[in-house]
Every structure is written in C-alpha cells, then in structure tokens.
Predict the 3D structure of the following.
Amino acid sequence: MTADADPDLDRIAEEVASVPDPEMPMLTLRDLGILRAVERGADGRPVVVVTPTYSGCPAMEAIRADVRERLERLGHVGAEVRTVLSPPWSTDWITEEGRRKLAEHGIAPPSGAAPVGPVPVRLSVKCPRCGSPATRTLSRFGSTACKELRVCEACREPFDHVKPL
Amino acid sequence: MSAERDTALAAYTLRLGDDALVASHRLAELAARGPQLEEDVALANISLDLLGQARSLLTYAGSLEERLTGVLRTEDDLAYLRDEDQFANCRLVELPNTDFAYTVARQLLFSAYQFELYTALAGSADETLAGIAGKAVKEVAYHRDHASGWTVRLGDGTEESSERMAAALEAAWPYTAELFTSDAVFRSVAASGLGADPPDLRPAWDVFVDGVLAEAGLARPEVPPITGPAGMGGRQGVHTEAFGYLLAEMQHLHRSHPGAAW
C-alpha cells in the first residue's frame, strides 16, 4: 500500500469509527479508543484493527460482527477485523468526547490509579450525578469487565465507574 | 527458530494457558452462587479475564505446536479434548471451592504468582507472549487486589472468619511450592529470553504475600509441599483427585455435542 490518497478508505475508516460499543452504546469505537487502524489488505479488502479493553471482553465478537455488517452495507463484503493485544489498551485512550458522554450518561469516567505498586494511590472519583467527590467503592467489579460499582456518600446514588487500567 | 526452542516455547505456553483456563473454570463454578451479589459479579469478572488470557495462550500454544507437528489444535481442541494427564496446569488452580475462604486463599496465592509472572513476561523476547502478558498484568493487578482485600477482611475479622481463612491458607499452601519449581522446559525458555524461570519469581511473591498475611494478622503456614508420585506434579500431568471432576464438568457439553455453539 502506498501513501497515495485513498478517499474511499478514509470513508470506510470514518464509518468504522462511528460504530457504537455494544456494552456502552453512548460511546463509539473512536471514543473508546479501541480502533487501532483501518487499512487495505493485499487483496484490497478493508482490514480493521481493534484492541480489546480486557482480555476476555465478550463484546469483541459483537464488535467484529457490527463492523463487518456496517461495511457490507457500504458494499465492502468480507472485511477482515483483526485483534491485536499490544500495546495494551489503557483507559487513557478514551477520548475527551468519550469522557464527556460517559459522565452525561451517569457513568463516572476513569480517574484514580490502577492498583499497581505496593501502595496503590487512590484519587477520588466524582459522583456523575451530583459532582460530590465523597464516593466509595462498593465492588471493584461491575456490570462489565471495564467498570466498578461505586456509591456517592452525598446523594446516596450508586453509579458505575470506568476503572483506570 | 530452532526446533528445540520452539518445542520448549510450545510446552511453556500450554502450561500458562492451562493455569489460566483451570483457574477461570473454578471461579465460573461460583457464578450465581457467590456469597453476595457484588461478589458474584466480581468472581465472574475475574473468571472472564482469566478465560480471555487462556484463549490467547491456548490459541498461541496450538499454533506453535502446528509449526512442529503440522497438525493444528485449536483453543477448543486443547480445552475440551485432552484428558487429565495431558493438562500441564499447576495443581493450586484446581483446588475446589470448599468454602469462600478457600476460593480467596487460592486466588491470593495464584494471582500474586501470575502478577510476578506476567510482569516478567511483558519483557519477553517473544512478541506474542509479551503482548498477552502486557495486557494481562493490568487485569491481574485487580485480581490480586481483590483477593488481598478479602484475605484481610476475613483474617482480621471475627474469630470464626479468621480461623476459616487460616485453615484455607494452610490447605492451599502445600501447592505453592510447585509454582516455583523449575525444570528443563522452564530453564530453556528462560535461557532464550522467552519466558521466566519460576524460582526467580519467588522473592517478590514472598514479599507481597507476607505483607498481606501480616495485615490480615495471619501466620505464614508451616506445612510441607505436597508432590505426586516420584516428585511429579501438575506440570507433568499428575493432578489432584478434584481435577478429574472439574474436567468432566468442563468438557462434558463439548464432548457430548461436538461443534455445539451458542
């Protein structure tokens, strides 16, 4: 593949980037930061490279199917969706736009630090409903692999938090 | 790549994949049976992370094996169509969920081991293993954090919870020696910079586990290692009695209905 302009590929990339995540449908693949590349394979068919948030993320199968279906509607049959693990996805890859949308939907965007090192540093997570920083973890594991369950001490509402990874 | 190096790498990757698969299955047994809703969700999430790691590792082990034998075994072939003596997981991960403290003890000792292992492997000269480990180590940090929290809550809880946590640790402890035992496969992958030699992982594991036990007010168990006949263990396909029952349940559907899919 040369560096020649490929407006068709740009359009494909734009379409793929706007596919919603099946578990957090307010986010697109671009917002979530899991779309790594959109290229052309040796035979000219599109190759979409994605990375999972967690090793066992069950949404990957659905994402593959959704991407292929979206491209088929554009007339690109048999697109390949390739999964890569390295470099590993990090919550830092969630875009600003993605963070804004999460908060709008009552899910606290990632903040704080992952539990690495001997003394994990925990920064406060703001309640996405009332904005209070007085929140605590109910469970480090939540409704999807990438979230934990917290509760706000101020407004008493429980909420999901995309935990830092 | 030399055939000898490939052979050792395939065997090594299979061991890591089997560890993750069996650990995952033990936790999956508790889905909808957790002691409380949040814990049920937590154990299922940890199980899912381990299953994801197992899938990557077993798929890779199968492809390495194919280069040597010309015959491909998929992740499903490896998970569902091997018998007990062909599994190379450590015996710690197959220990049953006798009570919640047993699950916590197993998870503490195993996740602390996996954390050191994947930390080392993230720098592997093998790109695929390094990629899998670099991803997994961040997940395992949460597993280790979860098990540590429960060890402290139970150990430093009531008289009853403390006794049961201590009993569970004592039951699991004899199987930890196997995690740090080397052999020709481990030495080969370590020498070529592809894998880690288990004894090298021990010092950091000791420091971490001792720290958690101290915070939990629990003593380090003083019980000798349990080995199988002729000093063999899980890495050589010699497993505990509980493992046969685990495999029977895990493999039954696939063997009775080959090709069944959701």
Q: What stands out?
A: Strands of chain A lie at 35-40, 46-50, 80-83, 107-108, 135-139, 147-152, 158-162. The first strand of chain A starts at residue 35 and ends at 40.
